[in-house]
């Protein structure tokens, strides 16, 4: 085997595979160069998500006329000179790989002028080959245009996502860079449309508001802590702005955006010690540490860092966030009137608890109030039905407001609704020619029950329905069961294009980030087919006018964000059917909850509906809906048999 020395063009393309992964990688490297050059205004213009064109304009120090060609040589950099400099890096770039790597997979034009020069220089490269160098007139600073990215590496193009998704990734990375450089003004233009604009500010909250909106700024708490080696500061969001993904978490070490499982775990652990929310908190965290205590030369994209003292980093981050959240929560509660101002926090908590117990007992003693409370928490199943009481031969009828007809009910003549519908269909079929009926829409009486009909014994703890049949005891989780019934009904309605929507009295207006908005546009047809009527309402803003009627009265904004986060986590490779299933599982918020008192008729109807669905034994999230206990098992527990 012989050893070959690779040509410069080949080695640059290999390096490009590590440094230039997609258009957002190009934008990151070029903007970081602008920041290192001391720019105060940086403008980025992209076409087709950066695949056709990326243009970065800055007002930094520029490149000297004698160095314009050196800039595209491998490992040519102005950031370091000796190997020792690696251990005291204060700039974002230092490898000297970005420009040659980018130029090797694109057609690149760069022009630049320094303050000392009366003219600028322009250089053009294609696939790593220099086409020309010439003098030109230009402003102080640097302008670089990257065209036809990956035109000579078609395999790499196939791995790129849609232009909308690539644009969203570029917007996301620019937002991170803007957070760590709030004194710099950033502007992003996509297909001649301005999508992101931040302004120079000494207040980080202003930049957070530009990127994430007013709601986020109103629900964040600042924190700060320092020692002899490092300092940490930033903002942590409360439970109200927590989301189902980590997309709104930013970590900066010495102003460099990184991804660190260590710091993320420290923040989330501190957050969950106060607020048990099954979502990920919003945070922006800045860790400033002496360069000799970290190693940033571990990844070509410089997004990973090794710390000399992991435990010390975890502790300072955890303590800072933990203290800030604790102080914030304590500040939300005023000291009760009449308490001694000099009382300790422990005494105040005890007095408050005693007052709450007294108030609770007072409510319970008031029987009228107690009855009203019980009525208010009952959520009847949304059906009009007549059902047979298991202990009586008489029919009982219960009606609950505006309702839909269930699949299996009875009329006053003893016929089920399905039988009546079947008769009508048969009569219509005899009077009408060329009418075809979808077999999937046949009445439920033709379906096979998945478990035997139960005799309802009662309800335990207002959460579990107890039934029996064939010497077997059945325990049914009422929330999980109703959730699965609604899930399958909603899923079938989606697939059959029969989703019924309800018009909102007041449309819900939601301002989205550019990243979230691009995800919505990409999945717009999915929302439309699942019963949402959404219209554009300005720049990156939507207005929700209709929602699926099966939702009941949910928190529309939080539900929409939750669905969007789930679609983000799924990625763009999932099929539409999987997305429908995920939305259906999230949409079943109207299911009867635990600790809700159900009437006997409601329990009978719920169990009857559960028997005829396709998969009644698990809820949409995989938890069991039914537990069966045989008589033999019970007698063993009571030691009747061995």
Overall description:
Helices cover 36% and strands 22% of the residues. It has 642 residues and is an alpha+beta fold. A hairpin with a 4-residue loop joins β22 (533-536) and β23. The termini are far apart.
From the N-terminal CA to the C-terminal CA, the straight-line distance is: 74 Å
**What sort of overall outline do the alpha carbons produce when their principal axes are compared?**
elongated
Question: Strands of the biggest beta sheet: in what spatial order?
Answer: 5-4-3-6-2-1-7-8
Which blocks of ≥5 consecutive residues have pLDDT under 50? 333-445
What structural class is derived from the secondary structure elements?
alpha+beta
Q: What fraction, in percent, of the residue positions are helical?
A: 25-40%
Reported for the largest beta sheet, the result is: 8 strands, mixed
CATH fold group of the largest domain: Heat Shock Protein 90
The number of helical runs is 19
Please give the CATH architecture of the largest domain.
2-Layer Sandwich
* Mean pLDDT over all positions: 76
Instruction: Say which CATH homologous superfamily of the largest domain is assigned.
Output: Histidine kinase-like ATPase, C-terminal domain
Beta-strand content bin: 15-25%
Number of strands: 24
CATH class annotation of the largest domain = Alpha Beta
Q: How many structural domains?
A: 4
Gyration radius, in Å:
32 Å
Features:
single chain, 642 residues, alpha+beta, Heat Shock Protein 90, Ribosomal Protein S5, domain 2, 8-stranded mixed β-sheet, 5-stranded mixed β-sheet
